[in-house]
Structure to design on (336 residues):
């Protein structure tokens, strides 16, 4: 059997398992993926908030929740990886079922941020992050500013940057977290202890009751000189198959929400704050559209679940081809 066929076959077999079991099995199997990390075309090298990335394609938070697998996942061709989200103390997450597949290449999850807590997470990263060969970012979550700051400070010298996740449907009191007063205090506290690049992960600007709060928070974030915004997190929806009755929608249906958020963000943050686009990016055409709307990097997760471990290499190859067809020598030439 040709070597390149094996990962595709394994992926199809994993799809026969329930989604959470398939994910766990996939993380174990990726350790045996021996293919070397390819060198992307020069046109896909891009200077970003994490330095020069090649390619500017990242693994979104949630895929490696413990920080144990980043060295293996980097072999799939990523330019950087986001591990977590991690909280100050261990969390078991919600009871099962807590993730389901949905038609249209989508997932709905109510995982509840299961993670080993910051101390074990750091131990895992110290064993794996340096071997990744690309920048590793830690996603930090918490319902209290002090929790977020404690995690951020603990990660100094461990990772290349941090992504602050205040937009998970699993966090309590979202409106309170995003209020101008509470978020302003967090931004001040984070600025006072800042040791490296930071991105803020935001929800889709689709919920009117939250939109004005998030827009104000984005302005506060940019005004404090933080490096990036990650847009977007999952979209909260009802899902009776989950133990919670609701969860966060990811995958293809999220793409339109992500693109609309990108359009609004560029008018808010200007050029001083970069954007990481995440949400329904499955193809090079999807990636190209995000870059044209001002993204500096893209992130993928659900697309790997549906398209398999060859996804990043496929996007990289096809994106280089699209740039050539457009007569562009680099991604910078198509960005606004």
């Amino acid at each position: 059997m040709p070597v390149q066929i094996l990962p595709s076959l394994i992926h199809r077999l994993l799809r026969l398992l329930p989604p959470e079991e398939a994910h766990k099995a996939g993380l174990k199997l990726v350790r045996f993926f021996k293919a070397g990390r390819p060198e992307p075309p020069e046109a896909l090298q891009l200077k970003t908030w994490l330095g020069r990335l090649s390619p500017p394609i990242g693994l979104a938070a949630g895929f490696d929740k413990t920080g144990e697998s980043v060295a293996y996942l980097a072999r799939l061709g990523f330019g950087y990886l986001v591990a977590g989200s991690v909280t100050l103390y261990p969390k078991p997450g919600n009871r099962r079922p807590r993730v389901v597949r949905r038609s249209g290449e989508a997932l709905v999850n109510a995982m509840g941020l299961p993670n080993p807590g910051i101390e074990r997470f750091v131990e895992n990263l110290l064993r794996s992050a340096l071997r990744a060969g690309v920048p590793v970012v830690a996603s930090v979550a918490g319902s209290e500013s002090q929790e977020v700051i404690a995690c951020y400070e603990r990660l100094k010298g461990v990772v290349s940057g941090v992504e602050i996740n205040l937009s998970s449907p699993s966090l309590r009191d979202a409106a309170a977290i995003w209020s101008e007063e509470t978020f302003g205090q967090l931004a001040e506290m984070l600025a006072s202890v800042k040791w490296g690049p930071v991105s803020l992960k935001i929800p889709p600007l689709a919920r009117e009751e939250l939109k004005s709060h998030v827009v104000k928070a984005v302005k506060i974030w940019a005004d404090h000189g933080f490096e990036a915004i990650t847009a977007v997190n999952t979209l909260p929806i009802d899902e009776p198959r989950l133990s919670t009755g609701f969860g966060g929608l990811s995958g293809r249906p999220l793409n339109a929400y992500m693109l609309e958020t990108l359009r609004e963000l560029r008018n808010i943050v200007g050029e001083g704050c970069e954007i990481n686009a995440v949400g329904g990016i499955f193809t090079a055409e999807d990636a190209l559209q995000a870059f044209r709307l001002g993204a500096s990097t893209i992130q993928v997760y659900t697309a790997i679940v549906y398209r398999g471990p060859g996804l990043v290499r496929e996007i990289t190859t096809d994106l280089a081809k699209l740039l050539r067809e457009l007569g562009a020598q680099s991604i910078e030439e198509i960005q606004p």
Q: What stands out?
A: Residues 1-5 have pLDDT under 50 and may be disordered.
